[in-house]
Backbone:
């Protein structure tokens, strides 16, 4: 366009999508010039955000796709760089970064819009359960690249590494003297005091609940023994104490230490022997039960028999010889039966015998275990009672989706949402698993269905599986999973997610003459028309704006003319102040009128683009505007934009077109007719109403009735003026003299103030 630019105060804009990635426009009053800021290249990440969930220890992976920006024109290698957005309390960034890894640390791109993928894995141990926020960036892009939707935005990974439910623990006790200790009283001593010390602790650590110790007790042969606290104390997780028990006769003494917290009671029993020198009288053995320690058992009704541990110790006193024999019997609903013992260490060879075994229980009821032991001086027996109740173990289940938000794509009606689940039971097996979905779109009826993949159902105490639901409507959904164990008990877990609908994208359909692809006559006013479709329907979108600019041979470009919407558009009606032709936009004084709908005006200094608008016709609807060109061979770029929000990143390019102009003999009018030299009297061959450039027997005639003279011989012989007025006009055969151009077409053309 050369000097034919828009208003001198208009900011010069470079709008080619190949050179820009953001374009902002401020749409103000119709008389205000639209300004724009054009887009720059962005790296695209998909997904740009993701949530990964699991129960620790857990390893989570997903695939990240990266699309190269338009700035990539040659081989470019970028490096993936993770950083921390958030970490659980007490976890350093360096530790958290050690959990994340990439299948490849670098990616190579050779062209714009090229896509590469990388697998990202996050591994979190049970000791570091919590929520982690990672940001993934790439470095090494060409200058001018924006890393993500905004500078340095990259992609984000939110990891919810859940801790296992803490396990409560009861106290653990260390007791002295050791089990089987033998003490010898001094010669002639009338008594002997057995020294006793104990230490009770509640284990602490990750994944444990450690209630404090609330009470302790010492006893010997069932007789309480007072003690002095030597470390820690009650209502803490550790307490130590010491005491003594005085005996006057030799024999076996059972020392018992007990510690209690809210989880349960722990007891340790050690048997010791005290010998008084010179005593020749033996004593029967003593016996202590070590298992079972539980007085009530439950099991899954109908499941195979479960095991109850058996254990006891027999101690023959000093000077009483070895343990010579032992027995164990079980009395219960099925009668009295012997117990098979797997270990009888010390029987017949030592004064201390340790017995270990087990029994299988498959019926409800009360049971009694009777333990007996012998030495040369007699027998000792003890009993342990317990009950068995048929019960049903309650299973557990966990279900999750990969994302918190899903989108139904533009022009699509559904989206598939995948899920995974895990389940377990402490007894029996998981026999059934179902999943259901509730929400506004089908199949969200809440009807349970079996997941498409399941492992372990009917055969194992733990299962894994997953499936998917096809969702047809936006909204909030609740996904539930239920598992059932062999005892008929169930567990249910749920998670929620949101589905949104992506609006259909808008697309451009160009109309003639732009769509014809033929060079138009230089110096003419180009009518620019197009349609916009959205979801298969042509629409009127007044947020659209158009940029048109000239591209020079040296690669530079002119200041773009920005067209914004006005219901009047670039009309062909007269100027409101003087009756001049409004499509030129100039009045008799050569200035622009705010109500001319601004194609601009022509004066002695050339074309001056005023405020520029486009209109939208009711038919089509068609978007319409007009653009003046320079004479000769030129190239013009037309770009159509829409802005979905207030930020520059919300600007999108809907379509582009390139229009070329040529000289007479190689250019075409709006109807596709080739123009000849004599047609180019005014430097153009085409406008909207075909008054210029409607080729007719060698002359540029006005319309079909020859409003520039009805002659077909190439001259303007009938009328040089319009509507019978030829004042200030002069004609020659095929051109207008300088008086026609010098003053903006003088005062002629119907007395309306002139072009």
Residues:
């Amino acid at each position: 366009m050369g000097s034919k630019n828009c208003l001198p105060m208009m900011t010069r804009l470079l709008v080619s999508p190949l050179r820009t990635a953001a374009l902002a426009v401020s749409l103000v009053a119709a008389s205000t010039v639209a300004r724009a800021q054009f887009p720059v290249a962005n790296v695209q990440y998909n997904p740009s955000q993701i949530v990964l969930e699991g129960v620790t220890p857990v390893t989570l992976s997903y695939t990240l796709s990266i699309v190269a920006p338009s700035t990539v024109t040659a081989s470019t290698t970028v490096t993936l760089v993770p950083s921390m957005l958030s970490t659980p309390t007490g976890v350093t960034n360096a530790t958290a970064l050690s959990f994340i890894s990439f299948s490849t640390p670098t990616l190579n791109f050779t062209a714009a819009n090229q896509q590469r993928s990388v697998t990202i894995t996050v591994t979190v141990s049970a000791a570091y359960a919590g929520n982690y926020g990672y940001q993934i960036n790439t470095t090494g892009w060409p200058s001018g690249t924006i890393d993500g939707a905004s500078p340095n935005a990259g992609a984000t990974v939110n990891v919810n590494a859940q801790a296992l439910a803490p396990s409560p623990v009861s106290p653990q006790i260390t007791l002295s003297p050791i089990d089987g200790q033998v003490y010898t009283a001094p010669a002639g001593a009338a008594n002997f005091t057995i020294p006793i010390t104990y230490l009770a602790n509640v284990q602490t650590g990750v994944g444990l609940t450690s209630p404090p110790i609330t009470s302790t007790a010492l006893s010997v042969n069932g007789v309480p023994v007072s003690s002095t606290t030597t470390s820690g104390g009650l209502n803490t997780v550790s307490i130590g104490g010491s005491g003594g028990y005085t005996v006057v006769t030799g024999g076996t003494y059972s020392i018992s230490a007990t510690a209690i917290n809210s989880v349960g009671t722990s007891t340790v029993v050690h048997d010791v022997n005290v010998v008084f020198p010179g005593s020749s009288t033996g004593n029967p053995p003593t016996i202590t039960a070590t298992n079972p320690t539980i007085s009530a058992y439950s099991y899954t009704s109908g499941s195979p028999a479960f095991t109850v541990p058996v254990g006891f110790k027999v101690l023959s006193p000093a000077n009483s010889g070895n343990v010579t024999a032992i027995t164990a019997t079980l009395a219960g609903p099925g009668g009295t039966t012997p117990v098979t013992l797997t270990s009888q260490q010390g029987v017949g060879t030592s004064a201390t015998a340790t017995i270990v075994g087990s029994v299988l229980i498959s019926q409800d009821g009360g049971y009694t275990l009777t333990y007996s032991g012998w030495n040369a001086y007699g027998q000792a027996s003890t009993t342990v009672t317990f009950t068995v109740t048929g019960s049903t173990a309650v299973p557990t289940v966990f279900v999750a989706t990969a994302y918190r938000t899903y989108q139904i794509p533009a022009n699509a009606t559904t989206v598939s949402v995948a899920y995974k689940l895990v389940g377990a039971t402490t007894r029996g097996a998981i026999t059934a698993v179902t999943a259901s979905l509730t929400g506004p779109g089908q199949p969200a009826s809440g009807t349970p269905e079996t997941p498409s993949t399941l492992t372990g159902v009917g055969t194992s105490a733990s299962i894994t599986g997953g499936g998917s639901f096809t969702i047809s409507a936006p909204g909030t959904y609740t996904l539930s999973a239920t598992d059932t164990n062999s005892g008929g008990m169930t567990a249910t877990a749920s998670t929620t997610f949101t589905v949104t609908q992506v609006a259909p994208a808008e697309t451009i359909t160009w109309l003639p003459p732009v769509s014809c692809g033929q060079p138009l006559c230089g110096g003419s006013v180009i009518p620019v028309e197009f349609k916009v479709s959205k979801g298969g329907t042509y629409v009127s979108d007044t947020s659209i704006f158009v940029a048109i600019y000239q591209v020079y041979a040296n690669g530079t470009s002119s200041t773009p003319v920005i067209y914004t919407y006005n219901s009047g558009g670039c009309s062909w009606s007269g100027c409101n102040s003087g009756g001049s032709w409004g499509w030129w936009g100039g009045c008799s004084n050569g200035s622009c009128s705010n109500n001319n709908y601004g194609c601009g005006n022509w004066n002695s200094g050339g074309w001056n683009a005023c405020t520029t608008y486009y209109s939208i016709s009711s038919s089509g609807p068609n978007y319409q505007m007009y653009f003046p060109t320079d004479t000769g061979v030129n190239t013009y770029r037309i770009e159509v934009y829409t802005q979905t929000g207030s930020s520059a990143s919300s600007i999108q390019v809907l379509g582009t077109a390139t229009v070329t102009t040529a000289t007479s003999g190689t250019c075409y009018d709006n109807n596709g007719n080739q123009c000849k030299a004599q047609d180019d009297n005014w430097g153009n061959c085409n406008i909207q109403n075909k008054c210029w450039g409607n080729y007719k027997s060698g002359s540029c005639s006005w319309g079909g009735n020859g409003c520039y003279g009805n002659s077909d011989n190439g001259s303007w012989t009938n009328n040089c003026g319009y509507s019978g007025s030829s004042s200030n006009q002069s004609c020659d055969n095929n051109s207008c003299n300088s008086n026609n151009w010098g003053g903006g077409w003088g005062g002629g053309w119907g007395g309306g103030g002139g072009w």
About this structure: DSSP finds two helices and 53 strands in the chain. The chain has a mean pLDDT of 76. The longest strand covers residues 378-391. Residues 506-570+612-701 form a domain with the Immunoglobulin-like fold (CATH 2.60.40.10).
